[in-house]
Specification:
The chain has about 400 residues and is α+β, with helices and mostly antiparallel strands. The protein is built from twelve helices and ten strands. It has three domains: about 100 residues, Orthogonal Bundle (Butyryl-Coa Dehydrogenase, subunit A, domain 1), CATH 1.10.540; about 120 residues, Butyryl-CoA Dehydrogenase, subunit A, domain 2; about 140 residues, Butyryl-CoA Dehydrogenase, subunit A, domain 3, CATH 1.20.140.10. The strands form three sheets. A four-stranded mixed β-sheet has the order 1-4-5-8. The chain has a four-stranded antiparallel β-sheet with strand order 2-3-7-6, with no helix packed on it. The chain binds flavin-adenine dinucleotide. Flavin-adenine dinucleotide binds next to strand 1 and helix 12.
Amino acid sequence: MLATGGHQQDPFEDIRTAVRELCSRFPGEYWRALDRDRAYPTEFVKALTDAGYLAALIPEEYGGSGLPLSAAAAILEEIHATGCNGAACHAQMYTMGTLLRHGSPEQKKRYLPDIARGALRLQAFGVTEPTSGTDTLSLRTMAVREGDHFVVNGQKIWTSRIEHSDLMLLLARTTRREDVVRRSDGLSVFIVDLREAKGHGLTIRPIRTMMNHATTEVFFDNLKVPAENLIGEEGKGFRYILSGMNAERILIASECIGDAKWFIRKASDYARQRVLFGRPIGQNQGVQFPIARAYAQMRAAELMVSKAAALYDAGRDCGAEANMAKLLAADASWAAADMCIQIHGGFGFAEEFDIERKFRETRLYQVAPISTNLILSYLAEHVLGLPRSY
Ligand SMILES: Cc1cc2nc3c(=O)[nH]c(=O)nc-3n(C[C@H](O)[C@H](O)[C@H](O)COP(=O)(O)OP(=O)(O)OC[C@H]3O[C@@H](n4cnc5c(N)ncnc54)[C@H](O)[C@@H]3O)c2cc1C
């Protein structure tokens, strides 16, 4: 296949082939119909769950496959390279890590086996709030201990997939900001059982966005969360969330690489087939060069993604590489998307070509889960030693 990047020595080639086969059952028509109605890809997520892909990172002792992050990255990349969209379920792969690394043995035993076999969905991740945005330490949602439970009040925004999830990881303040010694203290992580919470202090309001993303606003009004659902130590939640962010960045970057491959393949195929002025448009260098440039950009980003994943899997520090992987891959997918529309001329805008849909979908990754500016400021401060800017 053209522009796949070549994975001759890829240990996950069998997984890639199997994922491609599964995705072939969910062609463009499937995604277009969902996109029109902003509907959730329930059948697709079920197929991935049944095949065990969403449990790739869950250790075998809890019923998962215990695969390294590189394998999860390969799964998400292939989903996107085939024109599907992993955003409907990718969070299960990385939110689970917080529970795995910081949860108690009882919590892991209670949730992970059911998540692994698909009986429980952990798809929702409530961090962002309307007033604090990227400035996570300023979040205001408050969880106050009252006997054997916490009472939660506040609001989250952009809480994706919560309507299609049984559990949510929630980051809330348990000590007021003015009362903490270190500014990163005072936040705690909870596992919220949405089946009990909905209608009992938790209200969800969907947000219609430019792409089909099942995202929402969530309101907490005296929601009771049992104290046993606190993950790890009270007040240390920000650190627990941060520890999962490298995995999240690497996995999202893999999706961007998949998107870029899809756009490059579409553009190359079209440039070979579309005949104008008596020859394929792809015979013109003015058409070839943007495709070749997008390909080179994607391959360079792909190297950084696999470097970051390899460091992560080796248990080494990968903060800089994970951030650069996300930055470069999101730029590569966006550049490839723009190129692909241009190569298709007017047809790039037609719904039935799927390009405008993928174009809208891949634009998100310049902003979420972390915006480009924030990655650049991380690199400036932590890698280049420049003064902290905020
Ligand atoms: C479709 C969608 C799904 C999402 N899903 C989830 C989810 O499931 N769970 C969740 O918790 N969050 C989710 N998010 C939130 C996402 O992580 C945030 O949108 C993202 O981190 C940016 O935060 P913000 O929107 O508040 O922008 P802001 O923080 O308000 O920033 C606005 C702009 O200002 C720039 N900026 C801010 N501060 C600085 C600075 N110091 N220097 C330079 N530039 C700066 C940013 O780069 C950005 O471009 C989702 C968002 C979207 C759009």
